[in-house]
Amino acid sequence: MSTEFDFHETSRFLRTSRGDLHYHVAGDGPPLLLLHGSGPGVSGWANFRGNLPAFAQDFTTYVLDMPGFGKSYSAEANPLFSAAPAVVDLLDGLELGPLPIVGNSMGGAIAARIAADHPDRVSKLATIGGIGLPLFNPSPSEGIKLLVDFVEDPSHEKLRTWMESMVYDTDILTDEFVEMRWKAATDPEQATDLKKLYNKASLQAMRDRSSGAPDQVAMLTRIQAPSLIMFGRDDRVTPLDSALLAMRLIKRCELHVFYDCGHWAMIERKAEFEDVVRSFLLRDRAAVTS
Q1: Which domain holds residue 227?
Q2: Are the CB atoms for 284 and 225 separated by under 8 Å?
Q3: How many CB atoms are closer than 10 A to CB 2?
């Protein structure tokens, strides 16, 4: 299926008690939710617009802008803390669930948190990076340090340098792609929200792994949904060794590693990513109909 979807035709808003949530919806079938990562200029559309046609073949696919990103309401504090409640608001407001959730980076962390805290809402979990703890690599990672460098002093050069740390093959970083992220990243409201998440204080907190490790371990052990965790072998944001803890602690977990791939598997290894995730999501349905 090669049908391209239009931003405006798929765009929707949901009014909640916290503010308006923006999302895209396309396709037919049971519901599926896609959650984007963090970073300059990110949104649900920026992360998953290229994958929407593949998932819309079999699912009514929802692509959410979490608070502080895209066209959703601004986060009052760190957008990381606003994300999970906003996802639950979306599920409640649209009367969705249980449903599979696919999350990239921060979106994977949020999807895992919801699967752990609301097991009745998540039928399957698929993540790209974003979960676990790096066992051998230093923290914060190279990609996170470059991200903070951009946030503290934005420039085209620093944005491209950060984007290069996100991928294995830098040829995919066309001028059009970089300019799209630059335009969104320098929107005053989005820039302010991003500074709440990434700053020098957050870098210092990441250096102390012990502070968040117990909660991360406990959260992973509570996930009951069948889970697919995906990593790029060359990820410079959430290194591959982060997968080891998650793979061991999540009860029903499988791992897929994309070779020659950085942090943006859904973009850099688009066809393989779509094939792997669709196979995982449709496996039970195929067994029922065979």
Answers
A1: 7-138+212-289
A2: no
A3: 5
β-bridge pairing 20-26 and 31-35: unpaired
Strand partners, 230: 128, 256
182 within a domain of the structure (yes/no):
no
Q: What is the DSSP secondary-structure string of 85-142?
A: HHHHHHHHHTT--SEEEEEETHHHHHHHHHHHH-TTTEEEEEEES-SS--SSS-SS-H
pLDDT on residue 288:
46
For residue 210, what pLDDT is reported?
Answer: 67
Q: Is the dihedral of CA 157, 162, 168, 173 positive or negative?
A: negative
- Tell me whether residue 150 is in a domain: no
Q: Closest by alpha carbon to 209, among 242, 179, 234, 240?
A: 242
- Average pLDDT of adjacent 10-residue blocks, the chain of 290 residues: 83 97 97 96 95 97 96 92 96 96 97 97 97 90 94 94 96 93 90 90 80 89 98 96 95 97 96 98 68
**What is the pTM assigned to this prediction?**
0.94
- pLDDT value for 234: 96
Instruction: Provide the CATH number for the domain around residue 19.
Output: 3.40.50.1820
Name the β-bridge partners of 13: 22
Q: State the catalytic residues.
A: 263
Local structure of residue 290 (DSSP, 8 states):
-
Whether 266 and 51 have beta carbons less than 8 Å apart is answered as yes
Contact 67, 75 (CB under 8 A): yes
Dihedral pair phi/psi, residue 168, rounded to 5°: -85, -45
Angle at 169 between CA 102 and CA 279, to 5 degrees: 30
